[in-house]
Amino acid sequence: MATFILAFVVGMTYGGLVRKITARVHNRIGPPFYQNFIDAFKLYSKTSAIHHGAMHFMGPAFLMVSSIVSLMIVPVLIPGGDSWYNSWFNNMNAGGDLVFLIYIMVFGSLGLALGAGQTGNPNSSIGVTRGLSQMVGFEIPWVMALVALMISYKTTSIVDFINIQQETGKWLMFENPFAFIAAVLAMLGMFRYSPFDIVGAPSELASGPVSENGGKFLFTMMSSGSVFSFVKLTLFVDLFMGGAENLVILVIKTFALYMIPVLYGIVSPRYRTEQAVRFFWGWPTFIGLLAILYAVIF
Amino acid sequence: MDMLTLILVIFLGGAIVTWIGNKLNPVIGDLLFLAAVIVPSGMFFTGVGVDSTTTINALGLTLTWGLSPLSYLFSLVVVGLGILLAIYSVPFMKGNERTGAFYFNFILSIGSMLGILVSKDWVSFFIFWEIMTWSSYLMVIINGKDVQKVGIKYFVFSAIGAYAMLMAMVVMNSQLGSFMLADTFNNFQHMSAGYQILIPLLLLLAFGVKSALMPLHVWAPGAYSNAPMAFTSVFSGALSKMGIYGMVLVMITMVNQLPNGSIIRDVVAWLGGFTAAAATLWAITQDDGKKLLAWSSVGQMGYIVVGVAIGTPLAMLAALFLVVVHAMFKGSLFMVVGAIEKQTGTTDFREVNGLIRKMPWTFISALLSIIALAGIPPLAGFVSKWMLYEALIQNNNYILVILLFFASTAGFLYSYKFLHGYFLGQEEPEWDHVKEAPIGMIVPMLLLALGTFVLGTYPQLLFKPIDAALQYVGYTTTGGSLWADSVLFSQWGDVVMLQPILYAIIAVFVFFVIFLWFKGKKNTRYVSTKDISTSGEIPKEWENLTFKVNFFQPFERAIEPFLKRQIDKYYTAFGNGLEALFEFSRRVYTGNGQTYAIYAVLFLALLLLFKSNLFG
Q1: Can you give the three-state secondary structure of B214-242, one letter per residue?
Q2: Where residue B242 falls among pLDDT bands split at 50, 70, 90?
Q3: Which residue of A101, A184, B90, B152 shows the fewest CB atoms closer than 10 Å?
């Protein structure tokens, strides 16, 4: 439970900070950094006048399930670390969970797709098809990076990866740099900032899958999005940057990592879907192959 | 006559009796059909014990039938699907004028598949294999459409496989002197080295055709879509598994004994992986639900073949688990397509849409089956896929892991296309009259779909039969629990680790649905899909905002270089080349009686001229 509150608060704050940073880069003032909380509260307190059927309710619920279950699997802090609040954040991570995590991360978007489908809005369906196509694109380098790590250390458990990094004292980012680069390039697709934001292109598609959802639906989607961003960042930190002993270090590391897609995205135009997919199957896949070769040889 | 013989006789005789009964009166035909399928199935489950053998002497041949633990596992699939589909077929074929032929071929297919599974000698194996082939061929062409393109293609490929098997059988008999399966497997080393490689390859060809392994898959999309949907569930659920049954036998007993057997296994594994990826990509481009599911079946068989070919205990466990699970969700999905076809008259995505509120039970079955197909936890598809990935990683087949992951992720695309195509999207007035399918069709669908849910929560239900089957073919297990290898279970002993997570998923899901629905339930009213906010405009009734055509056009553009290359083109080119050869031989064999008369006269003249040389 504490993990969920942490993820929610941190995720929303990051969202607000990103809006501020984006605005400053664009030479505007931008909303305050706690704007996302205000938005969430406003959305929560509104009632939707209409709904489009049972699936419309289940869509955001699926999305939330995916975020929360991923949160339960990813270790937030290093287990057994030496901060007084460590045991609050213990969650259910058992062996073999990297594969499980990859699947549960996709479950949410499929559920959202179903919910959006029932509304009948063609923009939602177009957004979903673009999102799924792009996902096929970035999954390849992402899976290659993960497989490279699995080859080197013969384990699929995230906790094991953290322990290995603690023991050797070196971050996996430097042990297998190709895997890290491939994973970061895949991460650009995962976060859906430019140039891969054609999924929810606001002026083209009315935000794609989230159109037709207001009030509590949008609140659920927004919170789920923030929690999910936090989960992805924490996963990266655990795998490549040595985990985090306490919350301060966690915040610093995840924020530093988050700046990569955000800053790159602020100044980038948008790729079309087939350009995005072809991009991911080009250089990132090649670097992923290098990562696997590197893991096999060394 | 003992139980097994009686069961097979009822199947074979029941086919004829049902056909006659259907000619007399459709209702009698329906009742006889149900009896002909359900009675022997019930007898099979209660009366036949594992390892009981029967011997029949007929026509100078000795046929031996008996059930082995491996056959028992596959027979669960065959007979289970048979019963459920028999119940489904009766309302499905109502009013169809080819019902008699359908019943005849259906009963024969189920009976012959059971016969294949209980055959302990190659002769009866071949006999039942051929009965299965031609009864399914008759099913494919039952409506008389596309006999040339689809039916003959299926038959030719099956015949190639069957004759390869016949050749292997005859060679084995001449070398080892016996037709019994056990003898040929045990004495495999006594054959000469050349034969030791030839026999498995021939048998793999035969079984590869049936399980639609690339490049032998070209018959599958057409055949699966042309057969009536009630039969296609059996076709892709059970019939293709006969190929897997044979492959398991060949791989474990023969290929493992070859010194270079690992080469064959690697090649087959790569073919399987390539099948999975390529078939998935083709499925994404299809616009007809039947073809999409057909290509998806080919892809899923690729997964199973990878598991069988890798051969470690965990991989075999994953493959056999996927055999059962695939039969369940594919059977259910083809039944969904059949229900939609019956209620709306078409299965094209571009024509049908918005059926979710009109056919809710069909939608629920389709949703559960698609979630199982995509391999999403907590349903059973995920359990099998996870074990397969684990087995591949343990065995260091990393590129295959990536290929299969790619296939799984691309699988999400056609899963969404299937669901969106039939059930979601705009609801058009022309489909307002559609009602839910009759209850006889809904119950089997739902049972299969819920079965995947049950298996996902309690996979150990299936592990005991699989364990027995694997021990029978020679795997030894550590302490009797084969699944201890998998990380799914070893952490928590016998309890599936997934269970707490499953409860958490359900709890969170229910909580959020209630959270979203409860507060505003008095104030939130249902509106149709015409009342949407497309940038502030409300679409009129006559505006059709359905998005179906070119559904995945960006993705298809991205994979266009791949789509240009089809193996079918090679086969067609080969066929055209043969036709040119036949055209040439038409010059000699003209079909004209007078030409043949001239040939006879010329031949006699030659004989007379060279009489002295020939006859001294």
Answers
A1: CCCCCCHHHHHHHCCHHHHHHHHHHHHHH
A2: very high
A3: B152
Whether residue B377 lies within 8 A of chain A, CB to CB, comes out as: yes
| Most B-contacting residue of A143, A203, A218 (CB-CB within 10 A), to test interface | A143
Per-residue burial over B490-519, b = 16 or more CB atoms within 10 Å of its CB, e = otherwise: beeeeebbbeebbebbeebbeebbebbbeb
Residue position matching structure tokens 């559904």:
B551
Name which of B382, B396, B545 is nearest A103 (Cβ-Cβ): B382
Which among B293, B277, B408 has a CA at the least distance from the CA of B349? Answer: B293
pLDDT in tens, B357-367: 888 899 999 99
Neighboring chain B residues of A278 at a CB cutoff of 8 Å: 558
Q: Is B376 on the interface with A (CB under 8 A)?
A: yes
Transcribe B242-269 into DSSP letters: HHHHHHHHIIIIIGGGSTTHHHHHHHHH
Inter-chain residue contact A272 with B554, CB threshold 8 Å? yes
Do residue A50 and residue B527 have CB atoms under 8 angstroms apart? yes
> Nearest Cα to B12, choosing from B79, B104, B100, B83?
B104
B10-53 pLDDT tens trace:
888 888 888 888 888 888 888 888 888 888 888 888 777 666 67
Q: Are B273 and B203 in contact (CB under 8 A)?
A: no
Whether residue B507 has pLDDT greater than 60: yes
CB contact, 8 Å: B562 with chain A?
Answer: no
Q: Do A132 and B413 touch (CB under 8 A)?
A: yes
* DSSP states along B361-393: HHHHHHHHHHHHHHT-TTSHHHHHHHHHHHHHH
CA distance to partner chain A, nearest, from residue B359 (Å): 13
Asked if A1 has any chain B CB less than 8 Å from its own CB, the reply is: no
The whole-angstrom distance between B460's CA and the closest CA on chain A is 18
- Contacts of residue B367 in chain A, CB cutoff 8 Å? 114
**Cβ-based contacts of A71 with chain B (< 8 Å):** none
A274-293 residues touching B, CB cutoff 8 A: 274, 277-278, 281, 292
Residue type for position B582: F
Amino acid at B107: I
Q: What does the mean pLDDT of chain B come to?
A: 84
Interface residue A52 vs chain B (CB under 8 A):
yes
How many CA within 13 A on the CB side of residue B391? 27
Domain spans of chain B? 562-615
CA distances for B83 relative to B27, B102, B444, B450, angstroms: 18, 15, 9, 16
Size of interface A-B (CB pairs under 8 A): 218
Q: Is the dihedral of CA B388, B390, B396, B402 positive or negative?
A: positive
Which residues of chain B have a CB within 8 Å of the CB of A297? Answer: none
| The model's pTM | 0.90
Selection from A69-83, B316-330, B504-518, B563-577 with the highest mean pLDDT: B316-330
| A100·B515 Cβ contact <8 A | no
B226, B231, B233, B234 alpha-carbon torsion, rounded to 10°: -130
Structure-block tokens of residue B438: 């009759």
pLDDT band for B495, please (50, 70, 90 cuts).
very low
Give B457's pLDDT tier (boundaries 50, 70, 90): confident
Q: How far is residue B598's CA from residue B594's CA, in Å, rounded to a whole number?
A: 6
**What is the number of other CB atoms lying within 10 angstroms of the CB of residue B475?**
16
